[in-house]
Amino acid sequence: MFTGIVEEIGTIRQVEMGRHSAVLHIDAKEILTDIHIGDSIAVNGVCLTVTALRADGFAADAMHETLNRTTLAALKNGSHINLERAMAADGRFGGHIVAGHVDGVGTIVKLQRDDTAVWYTVQAPPTIMRYIIEKGSIAVDGISLTVAKVSADSFSVSVIPHTVRVTALGERKTGDKVNLENDMIGKYVEKLLGKDAAAEATQSALTREFLIKHGY
C-alpha cells in the first residue's frame, strides 16, 4: 500500500526486454534505506517487487500484464521515474490510499501555468472517468493529486511547484502518456451495491432515497 507521496526521482539504468516481460534496472538513492529483496516499490505508480539490490539501485520484474496495462513498456535508458516505498505502519498518511494497481493510461492534452502552479489536463477513457469526481483523489504516475475540474472525457489537476520539482511530472509535456489509478473507495462502493444498483446510480442523480434504499 502506498500514499502517492513520491519520495525520489529515479533513473532507468537499463531495460532488459524479454519476449513478453522486462527487467527494470533502476538507479536510486533515498529509497534504498531499509529496502530488502521482496519489498514493494511504486515505479510511476506501478507496484513492483524488488528482485535484486545494488549499492546505487535495484532491479524489478515487469510482467506481460503490467506492460500491457501501464506506460512501463515505453521506458528506456535514462528515463526518469517516480519512486515510493510501501507505506510504513508508523508513517504519516500524507496522500490517499494508493494500491499501485494501475487502472489505465491517460494522455496529457493541455499544460497551463497559473501563477506558480501548473494545470495538467489529462484525457482518460470512460472506465477511468466514471470514478473521478471534483475534489476527489487520483494517482497520476503514482502521485496523489486532487481533481480540480472534470469534463466528459478529461480531468484537470492544479499542481504546486514543490510537486513539479520533486517528481518526474515536471518533465511531462502535451501528448505524454501517464499511469492512472482511481481512488479505490468508489470502486468498492460500486461493487458492494451490485451491477443493477450501480447502473441505477449512473442513470439518475444520487439521491437521499437511493442511499436509504441501499443501506446508507
Give an account of the 3D structure.
It is built from six helices and twelve strands. The chain has helices at 64-69, 126-129, 161-166, 184-193, 195-203, 208-213, and strands spanning 8-17, 22-27, 40-43, 46-54, 57-62, 80-85, 104-114, 117-123, 137-140, 143-150, 154-159, 177-182. It has a six-stranded antiparallel beta barrel with strand order 1-2-5-4-3-6. Strand 10 (143-150) and strand 11 form a beta hairpin. The longest helix is centred in the last third of the chain and has 10 residues, at 184-193. It is globular and about 60 Å long. 31% of the residues are buried.
Please sum up the structure shown.
The protein is of the alpha+beta class and 216 residues long. Helix content is 19%, strand content 38%.
Features of the shown structure:
about 220 residues; alpha+beta; six-stranded antiparallel barrel; 12 strands
